[in-house]
Amino acid sequence: MKNIQLIGIVGAGQMGRGIAQFAAQTGFQVILFDAFKNSLDFGHNFIKTQLDKGAEKGKWSADDAKAAFGKISVTLEMSDLKNCDLVVEAATEKKDLKLDIFKKLDEIVKDGAILASNTSSISITEIAAVTKRPQVVAGMHFMNPVPVMKLVEGIRGLETSDETFNTVAAVSEKMGKTFVRAQDYPGFAVNRILMPMINEAVYALYEGVASAKDIDTAMKLGTNQPMGPLELADFIGLDTCLAIMNVLHDGLADTKYRPCPLLRQYVAAGRYGRKNGKGFHIYESK
Ligand code: CAA
């Protein structure tokens, strides 16, 4: 197994900043990279706020919060990731963007380092194939919100080596997460199951089976889910849900995965869910 001390994170958005915080709190040195100063500053400040809030709530001490924050450096230059032992890419879920990032990381990051992606649906094998080191590329799929959710879904691309997969499993476990192993097929394990459930909830709404509120209440109280499926879709982002359904539909070529027309319509209307205040439900604060 590889010795991982310095972790680079690409993207200071919702997922990247959560991974950076967790990695620092569990003893790793972290370099957080984002190409945009606003995002980087926002992400860095958000981590500080989360660490301070946790200390106020008594989840950890103020000294531990300070020490964790001190382990995180930030940069606007991807080249600063060159000495990382592991880089976790958590950029926007767009294939071209991710392929471009991996081509660059392959040029920049030292030989032997592991390159992981937090993608929720893009093929790890395809991402790995744009690098000259596909054996050290793997998926590390964290769930949102990262500090709360206990899972990392590990995805093994066709060429991922045992050493790489065992190392990302060990890093995830050191971060206090449970690691499950999935093969690189569309949706992996989580979204192969979660997204059809959400899509079916949208069909139930589309066909007038029940209101959005009642569908969510039924599933929350009837199946003990913390959020109903439509509320969860809003939380994930309806554009993301549609993108993942398209990956399932295209990749598995089965009509049972066809995205509901109502989901397409909401996305076309710019109703993306909680992030812009309007989805299946309306939110006062984003
Ligand atoms: N960041 C950090 N911490 C957060 C948080 C966030 N965004 N949101 C909530 N929390 C923390 C709170 O601080 C609180 O912590 P303490 O108990 O220690 O004080 C705890 O979570 C509970 O929060 P709340 O009481 O405010 O709210 P809640 O009880 O309603 O829980 C929730 C909120 C944790 C989000 C819960 O509704 C939940 O678990 N929802 C389901 C989330 C889920 O399924 N995520 C996976 C989505 S799928 C995915 O991410 C992968 C993909 O590819 C699409």
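^ acetoacetyl-coenzyme A complex. The beta strands are 6-10, 29-33, 72-75, 86-89, 114-117, 137-142, 151-156, 178-183. The chain has two domains: 6-183, 191-274.
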